[in-house]
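For homework, think about our next protein:
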Amino acid sequence: MDGKRAVQNNTGLGNYSRYALNILSLAYPSAQFRLYAPKNMPNERLEPLLGRENVSLTVPDTSFGGIGRAFWRTVDLPLDLKRDNVALYHGLSNELPMTIRGVCPSVVTIHDVIWRRSPADYKAVDRRIYDFKYGRSARIATRVIAISECTKRDLVADFGIDPSKIDVIYQGVDPIFSLDINTERRQEVRAKYSLPAHYIACVGTVQPRKNQLLVVRALALLPKNVHLVIVGRMDGAYADSVRREIERLGLSDRVKHLQGVPFTDLPYIYADADASVYPSRYEGFGLPVVESLTVGTPVVAATGSCLEEAGGDGAVYVNPDDADSLASELLHIIDDRIYRDKLSRYGRRHVRKFSADTFAKATMASYQKAILAFS
């Protein structure tokens, strides 16, 4: 497995990489899972996984710094795979080594084509690099895992990938979201962050694609006792525009921003919210939707990409440009306890399809198809 993101990223692709490693190494204890990462660095969420007998980490023996490590990951890594007699290589974060063809079967997980759907968020040179690296990886892979039907459609339409070699496998949430929400711990988290009595949770980096301006404008239409809690990094020009809009609408005392929240606190922040909101214009999947539904908190999400796959009938959906509709749906959830409880039940039922067992079996089936196709 490509271990770069598992080692270096604490969110997003890192979460997916650690989730895959965790679930697969538990489900298949007789299989050996080796991470290949450009460097090793402390990661408290990875370390327990590396303590398992069937999990190990390999880093390159290079003295050429970052350039040497990048070259190893892109070009030289297949030499190590051949030396180690690896049965299959899984690129967990959109990429495969350029020279892997013919060395061993390969599977690559493609998460999204966001740089094509939201080009304004990316530099032109980065878009060209992603087109080359990710498109080529999907073409040379023995099998491709897409994290949603939306991503599969985009791969076929944008890169001409044969749909028959794409397996759609949904990511599940970390097991911490499925634990009983302990009342005492909930109170501790509420006190830790001084959470308001009634709030809407909005989890995700503040950026144009995530569309937090819509949430702020919807908040202005809600009763004054309803607050907004934004959880995620908030910097850059778009974040500044969100702050200005909060101030212009007189909402400064109703919006709380939390950054650097420990992963273990997130389930309680979701659980104590009246609802959560995820109005992103484009996602590969939308894991925060599933996280919220898993703890029983209804979601209002945006139409237009894959969020209906993530939320099913446990969420409601609005046009990502319609603040009035967003406010109306949120108010319905807040004011109507019967409706809120119904959505909560539907949501918990829907997220069963994202179980760890389903993920493990489907991923192993993709591996087996890749091995058969390669032989």
Summary: Residues 198 and 209 are 26 Å apart (CA to CA). DSSP finds 16 helices and twelve strands in the chain. The first strand starts at residue 33 and ends at 36.
